[in-house]
Amino acid sequence: MISTRDATVADLPAIVDIYNQSIPAGTATADTKPVTVADRQPWFQQFSPEKRPLWVAEDAEGQIIGCIYVTSFYAGRPAYDKTAEVSIYLAHSHQNQGLGSVLLQKMIDACPALGITTLIGMHFDHNESTRHLNEKFGFEVCGHLPEIAEIHGEKRGLLISLLRIPGSQ
After folding, report:
1. Which of 22, 168, 16 is nearest to 95 (CA)?
2. What is the mean pLDDT of the chain?
3. Are 28 and 77 spatial neighbours (Cβ–Cβ below 8 Å)?
4. Distance of alpha carbon 54 from alpha carbon 160, whole angstroms
5. Could you tell me which of 134, 122, 96, 118 has the C-alpha nearest to residue 169?
């Protein structure tokens, strides 16, 4: 059984480990070197359960196996307050098993209470797993920035997708 909860500072080592697992594949982050817990401490401070949550997913043994979070769009400028970017990172051992869908649905369901009317998803154009997940939930591609990143010596583009939250105003 998978459970989710608000992340705490004590979870940061596990969150960083999962994030760092995504770097070698070159599909989920533009970071090219592992980050440290110290690097991520200021990043962690931007989250709040009431407005911009960071949730961890735990397996039946209490191991953190993934995380999902929303961040304010465009440096948190007030006119964009109802828009947030969603990000998901899963431990390699739990990818392609439906966990991303569970977490994304939970976040979508929470958006009205968080005051979010639009979710933005950004992913590399060669990241088929995220493309498939976003399509499944109805995200619409509204932008493509071709060849703006270099990953493992190859130029990669960024897709920008939107999801209007059903029932939000």
Report:
1. 22
2. 95
3. no
4. 21
5. 118
CA dist., res. 158 & res. 80, Å (int): 21
pLDDT, one tens digit per residue, over 130-147 is 999 999 999 999 999 999
120, 98 contact by CB (below 8 A):
no
Q: Are 111 and 117 in contact (CB under 8 A)?
A: yes
75: pLDDT confidence band, cut at 50, 70 and 90? Answer: confident
What is the DSSP code (8-state) at residue 165? Answer: P
Q: Which domains occur in the chain, in start order? A: 3-120 (3.40.630.30)
62: left (phi over 0), alpha (psi -120 to 50) or beta: left
